Amino acid sequence: MTKTHRSKAAFTVAVASSLVLGGVAAPAALAAPSADAVIAEVYGGGGNSGATLTSDFVELANRGPAAASLAGFSVQYLPGSASPSSTWQVTPLTGSVAPGGRYLVAEGKGAGGTVALPTPDATGAIAMSATAGTIALVSGTTALTCKTAADCAADARIKDLVGFGTATVREGNPTAAPSNTASVARGTALADTDDNAADFTAGEPTPTNTAGESTGGDPGPAPTPAKIHDIQGTTRISPFKDKKVSGVTGVVTATRTFGSQRGFWLTDPNPDGDPRTSEGLFVFTGSASPAVAVGDAVTASGTVREFYPDAPASSPFQALTELTGAEWTVGSHGNALPAPTVLNPDTVPVTYAPSPGGNIEPLTLEPSKYALDFWESHESEIVSVTDARVVGPTNSFNELYVTTKPDQHKSVRGGSVYLGYDQLNSGVLKVSSLIPFAERTFPKLNVGDVLTGATSGPVEYDDFGGYTLFASVLGTEKDNGLQQETTRKQRTGELAVATYNVENLSTADTQAKFDRLADAIVTHLATPDIVTLEEIQDNNGPVNDSVVAADQTLQRFTDAIVAKGGPRYEWREIDPVDDADGGQPGGNIRVAFLFNPARVSFVDREGGTPTAAVGVVREHGKAHLTASPGRVDPANEAWTASRKPLAGEFVFKGRTVFVIANHFNSKGGDQPTHGRFQPPVRSSEVQRAKQATVLRGFVDALLAADRSANIVVAGDLNDYPFSPSVQTLTAGGVLKDLIASVPEAERYSYVFEGQSQVLDHILASRAPRGVDYDVVHLNAEFADQASDHDPQVIRFRPGAGNPFEDGLYDLLDWLEQVFGK
């Protein structure tokens, strides 16, 4: 399970017309600054993924004292790269723009978005780039021919020009990069310094036409005076959503001065006394660093928005209430900060969320009853936790998870164990940092480590991980010495079967990853006899071509095991149909067997193909596979775009053992546990339920042929012991899920969003004797991981179904334990 694109839309709000980004002097101007009509705003993300607006647009404005005629003019667009084959596209204009007024030009329309532009004053069909390009306001409707900044500077027809993103043609430096959800716009003073970087900032699109209608067609009303608690309200959605407010007062408690998510947090030092209403608010300035300091008393105005990371109408996430398009004044400096909310073990409620069976946004907050309501009622306020124990290790995004409830479902190694859909760990809180890396690098911490002292900062909702403390004060890291585990070696009479998800292993990976995974097999798993591997990729990994073979990947892995002092493992697998089994595009992940031929034999039986179903036959009272290795019902719809189970027949000390390697479909598409829909819909469970039914049918067929069959079902089932799919596999006691047999504090093999949980399983039939099971924790709890999963191993003596023979086998095993080999 991996994270995808994370950044908040690169909104930037013009807060002062004289702002020059980065303090860089602009090169020579392309043309004399326009005295009247100028390009005021450019947006090319209309109708794209995540966009609210359905169309691209260009907005003009008049900075002169008299009406400016646009008759005979055009707006023209050139792609950002301006290659020799690029051509300018033209949209003719008519009419005029009043002094101080706006003029809206609608351009290309996409399939996405939900909000139409206000009535445009001119309409074109140019499909503009969302991130890089050039717009020119031109006297005339003949397409321009210039392709460089210098050539365009010499064209007297160009009245104004804006190069955005990485545009080759621009005035001075290009603007900051816009996006699907952000335009570039001039400040309210419409300054024209002929340096696009100085004049334009990226921010929320605000298309306005000559009638003064903005998005949605409403004329802009006068701002409403409001306090922060008025804006936040008593539900998750502000009563001032999409409205302009003024007179918003507060003290700056923290600033974010790097990245594309810049802004500052305000807290009103005069609360209203209602525990449901937050006194904090984030003022979003996009890619422009906020010109304020902690302790400043600020009076602000702007538009209240509810920010979602994706399309608001369909988003499963919660929104962040923020002030955009903000302007403010600083009244005084160095003011005392409002006291933070101190997070003690009993501060956050145990019950995670209300569960009405739908959207919780309209519900009145109950912060004393529900954890998600508690966090929302403190949105953008400063919170503080002391000596916070880490329950989710530092990740590649410089985030970690702590718990405010150190005794809540504590694991044996310091984490927080997830034990049921209704038992989420409400004390878990993500921690990010507002401290620039030049001042302090983010600590690399493992589960069980501690941030000693106070960690404090504003809290807000983040779609990746839920409520997050953005630390302006970060505690001191304390290493509690978490060590990788090592399991014992199997005895002579024990068969050891392990399962290990090696996280998209291919020849594209570094030798260091192969070496670490090999060391896990040799040292930490003590060279098991059989290993089921998940996420073995084809020979060139993520290259999306026709390659499906994985022999080079497996050869390199087994060579690394030998180099670490392990045995020369052999492998068995079946190459999938290209791009048919899900996972990383082009990677063709599959399950595979490794086995030590010095300890166990593999029964090779022809007939296993990507599309052929393995069957079960009964011979001499025993079950056998029709093909070994063979795939379990690969044409069944249950395995669509998912890995197919691989069945193998092994012989250990004369006894047949069936091992089935699995990797069920992922949880992609499920609503988040911390989202706005409660309880969340786990849509991916539907396919896993079908997969479990098919797999259980195959197990039942084996047992029907031989009720004493030794069966091991192992792999990444992508589900919990209490899930419907696992319950299907274990129904009637036919298979035993071994992780459910260990103490609750040890039931995990994966850590996600600070919750130590189970995705990987080993299940066994009744026949295996003397079963010994172990989860070997060596990855999931550590900041430095070879894989994001922990392996597991089962050791057992295969049963023969003959009481005398089994009894003799037990005696020999006992003698070995007492007297050794």
Describe this structure in words.
The longest helix has 21 residues, at 685-705. Strand 14 and strand 15 (262-267) form a beta hairpin. The chain contains nine helices and 44 strands. With 821 residues, the chain is mainly beta. The strands form ten sheets. Strands 31, 34, 35, 36, 38, 39 and 42 form a seven-stranded mixed sheet that branches. The two termini are 43 Å apart. Helix 5 (511-524) crosses helix 6 (551-563). The chain is elongated, with a radius of gyration of 31 Å.
Uncertain residue segments: 1-30
Strand content: 25-35%
Q: Radius of gyration from the CA trace?
A: 31 Å
The profile of the biggest β sheet is: 7 strands, mixed
**Content-based structural category:** mainly beta
Shape: elongated
Which properties best describe this structure?
single chain; 821 residues; mainly beta; 31% strand; elongated; disordered N terminus
Put the structure in a nutshell.
The chain is mostly beta strands. Strands 31, 34, 35, 36, 38, 39 and 42 form a seven-stranded mixed β-sheet that branches. A six-stranded mixed β-sheet has the order 8-7-2-1-11-12. α5 crosses α6 and α7 runs parallel beside α8 (724-730).
